[in-house]
Amino acid sequence: MDTILQEPLRLPPVAIPDGCAAWDEERTRAWIRAGAPWWVPVRPRLWLVEQSAVLSLIVALCLLTLTDLPPYLIALLPLQAVWGVWRPEVVRFSVPVVAVVLALVLGVSGVPWPAPVCAALLLVASVTAAELRARARARQRSSALAAADGVTAVLPAADAPVRRGRFLVGFGTVVAVPALALLAASPLWRYAEDRRGGAAAGLFLLGLALTVLLSGVLGRRRALALRRAPAPVLRVLVRKDGHGDAVVFAADDTTALRPLFTVPVMTQATDEDEEEEGDEEEELDELLDGLKDEERGPLHEAVLYGAPCDGAEVLLVSAAPKPGEPPLTEWSTGPVRPLSERGLGSRLAREERAAARAAHAEAEHAELVEVARTMTVVPVRRWRAGPVDRLSAFLVVQWGVWLCLIGIDDGFWHRALLLAIGLMGALVVPVKLGWRLTADRTGIWLNRLRAPRHISWDDLRSARRESFELQLRVRGGDNWSVSAPRWPWLQRKRGLTHPYDALAAELSAMIADPALRPTGESGEEERGRPLWPYTAVLAVVWVVLMAVRQGWL
Fold this sequence. Notes:
Shape: flat
Strand content: 5-15%
Number of helices: 14
Distance between the termini: 65 Å
Number of strands: 17
Radius of gyration: 27 Å
């Protein structure tokens, strides 16, 4: 485990409320012990929420095809998994209702025994985790309030506009529209199975939409509640992680050995700052681009407003990164997520592995860049899709063909799903097979579905191979990437260089040294053709293939 040896950046005394206590290691021990057990999912990262949603969708499809349960139970049962991870407040009320309804339905229908047993296990696990999480939340809140010794302070910029929850409310509203459309159209299908599937799909999607809406509303309500009255205050240490989230430590943990919790934050812009908001966002993007997952920023002294616990909203006033600048006021844009002892061990192990991989990748990239510095300057330089890209496209195509020839049945929803998968493949495959990258003295050109895109050298920040992707980071956030298989063990054994690594090294050398950039200007024929004609042909082929499989042609 690495430690931070430099002194934390100091917070001006005027920014510390009178009587504000230090949340030291002795006081944080009780807060840590009050947390939920390690196996309770209190840190639902986005990937975990996505996986729970995908898992619940698979469960819903199994219930639809293997049981005779009504549509509302087909939607409600798998949603418990999503709510257990994302919205445990709902589980405490939904599980009893679902259990009663399930018992009544099973009493009058002949559902095979595995279905009710699995449903019962799911409901018990969900409500148990939600109850443990709620009790731990209450204990940690009480511990934080006791640590503050009753000292409260008015939040700075408490009258600023509340942005918390706006996006989620809007996104949930958008998702609810197709859900309601599915529900309204479900009685119009010809076959009873399609009507049942349409109602189940509409209810499931509506449940996801309401979940997103509820998250936005709860976040907004908690943010408003934090502003209404003076909040408890605690002195802590803070630094940023590779995702831009704030990691909070005890006030005397100057070596950052034991992070307490993480919380996503956003700097509150004042009226004077709004004119410079675009420049600030651009600087933040550049900072995060250079901050890898395993790298951490320096420690800052900070004042924490609010009682931290699982799901809480807080405000942080921390020392500025540069001397002479005013302290940073950062509102939470997501809930507080505590770190358990076991979770901390896993996090540190992941960081160590990621640091080792990053150091190895950085050394390899630096060696390739040095080699690329010896390349000959040419008027125009071009790169295009190669064998690894063709292999990637082949894997996508054969998967789609297998689904069409083997996995299809007579249900409308199965056909609709396969049609959507095929059309998405028609968008992906031409890019994998036909991407072109052309560099000239003005910048680089990327061929796209509609027309080539130009990126000037000043706007091109970096070119790196990240995992399976070649990523070009562009000023303003409109990045570009393409993916292909990669076998590091085979490359090391054979002494091979992945094409994406070589391309990224050559572009990196040109970004760093303008003398290596091409001297001429590319013509239209050198910049690659639009890819939309290939997409149209593949889409037509997929539709015809499905029609032949169904006997329509």
